[in-house]
Write a structure and sequence with these properties.
By secondary structure, the chain is α/β, with parallel strands linked by helices. It has 3 domains: 218 residues, FAD/NAD(P)-binding domain, CATH 3.50.50.60; 111 residues, 3-Layer(bba) Sandwich (FAD/NAD(P)-binding domain), CATH 3.50.50; 105 residues, FAD/NAD-linked reductase, C-terminal dimerisation domain (Enolase-like, domain 1, 2-Layer Sandwich). It is built from 13 helices and 22 strands. The strands form 5 sheets. Strands 1, 2, 3, 4, 5, 6 and 17 form a 7-stranded mixed β-sheet that branches. The longest helix is centred in the N-terminal third of the chain and has 25 residues. The structure holds flavin-adenine dinucleotide (FAD) and nicotinamide-adenine-dinucleotide.
């Protein structure tokens, strides 16, 4: 029977990163994956394909809507959906092949099949396509089995017209109309893809704000800007059903007045969250405890109630984000190797890859108000940025929240061009516990979108912004 120091179950960004770090630390490591390709949700049906389609659809949208303003005239512009989807598949393949290469390079043994517990130190691997299962022995296990789309019990997903994000990443036509249930991250990113390509998109959201867990100012501005590309929002609507008849889906909802209303689409994308995935693991055989909402219970070291068995990523508490899973993978590998790593969960940024992009880190203004903490606000709009005017991306702003007394930056919330990358400056500043004054005094190259961060910090420290 093969023996390992560490066996990782699941090859998403949590699992494959944990495996690499374990191998770097000299631990004999195996990685079990039930799908034929490595990389998990993120690489196969999540972050990477969605960003590939966001980029393609943005090119089309710009060619269609903004090129003329730049003095570029095009004729006979059209969308070639099969080619767009094939390109996306190529991007995914390059990424998942890259993980295979990294496994070989780090001498990590990849075991293909469904992993399940025999007991706390033995795992069975059942080949996905059938065939005999085999058992391995392992000193430590890292469970990184991720999540799957949450289904509403009253909606029957046929995966053709009533779909989740997985199918929405693979539609080979431009739909005429799409109803999106849920104004969260997936709903907004995929609504953006199809609205840019010409689909009439309606978003039906339960709460009164889109991206309701981020600083509320961001959702407000994003809703305004996405309205300009034709996305319609139906807020405070509780979806109660969706029924397909032929190629038409009718979605029912209760509106704020308590009336029953209906929306029709060629497709209905249900994006109401994701649920931890533990099916088939046979956790009971190892005596592993669960907590609410199907998550695996872990302590501050990400260890389950069973010594030597850890869990990371979407299958445990916290934000369901690839970079959070990655940090936890490194954390657990280093813990197993006897190190004392640390994760600052407050400084894990959240990003929405719409256009304009949206990003936030640290406390939101709502949280600071709720906690009764005295704070200052500095804001800078992109319409006052020379770089944003040059590119024509003047929607959005950077908002900096700083402690009223010490000036320490407590939160940074941005909506605007390329701020998915700009948020890294805020994370760095906050990790080093910078004050708004510190950032305000640093040189930012001109003309860049990053100047908005400096200007917002100037605004937070006594209304000193130069360009507004
Ligand atoms: P996963 O990536 O879900 O991987 C789990 C793996 O475990 C899977 O490969 C699965 O097959 C395998 N597995 C499960 N059970 C077993 C078993 N018993 N045996 C063997 N293998 C098993 N996050 C971001 O940070 N940025 C983004 O831009 C972003 N975009 C997204 C877009 C979409 C459409 C979706 C759906 C998600 C997106 N996410 C994004 C979220 C991100 O994909 C997840 O947070 C991340 O993949 C979680 O990583 P993980 O390692 O915990 O699990
Ligand atoms: P979400 O939690 O972000 O949003 C779900 C939305 O659906 C919420 O706004 C909720 O109020 C609404 N909702 C729930 N039930 C409803 C109902 N019956 N009727 C109408 N609205 C309803 O979930 P998601 O968008 O599915 O994304 C899942 C996870 O994937 C998120 O945790 C996110 O972190 C991750 N993800 C991240 C990225 C990124 O980082 N850019 C991209 C995609 C997904």
């Amino acid at each position: 029977m093969n023996q390992y120091d560490v066996t990782v179950i699941g090859s998403g960004p949590g699992g494959y990163v944990a495996a690499i770090r374990c191998a770097q630390l000299g631990l004999k490591t195996a990685l079990i994956e039930k799908y034929p390709t490595l990389g998990g949700t993120c690489l196969n049906v999540g972050c990477i394909p969605s960003k590939a389609l966001l980029d393609s659809s943005e090119h089309y949208h710009n060619a269609h809507s903004t090129f003329a303003e730049h003095g570029i005239d095009l004729e006979n512009l059209r969308v070639n959906m099969p080619q767009m989807m094939d390109r996306k598949a190529g991007v995914v393949k390059a990424n998942v092949d890259g993980i295979g290469y990294l496994m070989k390079k780090n001498k990590i043994e990849v075991l293909a099949g469904v992993g399940s517990f025999v007991d706390a130190t033995h795992l069975s691997i059942a080949p996905t396509g059938g065939g005999e299962a085999h058992t391995i022995e392992t000193k430590n296990v890292i469970i990184a089995t991720g999540s799957k789309p949450t289904v509403l019990p009253f909606i029957q997903h046929d995966k053709e017209r009533i779909i989740t994000s997985t199918e929405a990443l693979n539609i080979r036509e431009v739909p005429g109309r799409m109803v999106v249930v849920g104004g969260g991250v997936i709903g907004l990113e995929l609504a953006s893809v199809y609205a840019r390509l010409g689909t009439k998109v309606s978003i039906v959201e339960y709460t009164d704000s889109i991206i309701p867990t981020m600083d509320l100012s961001l959702g407000k501005e994003l809703k305004r800007v996405l309205g300009k590309i034709g996305i319609q929002f139906f807020m405070s609507h509780k979806v109660t059903g969706a029924v397909r008849a032929g190629d038409v889906v009718t979605v029912s909802a209760t509106n704020p007045k308590g009336e029953e209303v209906q929306f029709e689409g060629d497709y209905c994308l249900v994006a109401v969250g994701r649920s931890p995935y533990t099916a088939g693991l046979n956790l009971e055989a190892a005596g592993i405890e669960m907590e609410e909402r199907g998550r695996i219970k872990v302590d501050a070291h990400l260890q389950t109630n069973v010594p030597g068995i850890y869990a990371i990523g979407d299958v445990v508490r916290g934000a369901m984000l690839a970079h959070k899973a990655e940090e936890e993978g490194v954390f657990v590998a280093e813990t197993i190797a006897g190190q004392k790593p640390h994760i600052n969960y407050l400084l894990i940024p959240g990003v929405v890859y719409t256009w304009p992009e949206v990003a936030g880190v640290g406390f939101t203004e709502e949280q600071l108000k709720h906690d009764g903490r005295a704070y200052k606000v500095g804001s800078f709009p992109f319409k006052a940025s020379g770089r944003a005017r040059a590119s024509g991306d003047t929607d959005g702003f950077v908002k900096v929240l700083a402690d009223h007394t010490t000036d320490e930056i407590l939160g940074v919330h941005m909506i605007g061009p390329r701020i998915a990358d700009l948020i890294a400056e805020a994370v760095t500043a906050m990790e080093f516990r910078a004050s708004a004054e510190d950032v305000a005094r640093m040189s930012h190259s001109h003309p860049t979108y990053a100047e908005a961060m400096k200007e917002a910090c100037l605004a937070a420290t006594g209304n000193r912004a130069i360009h507004m």
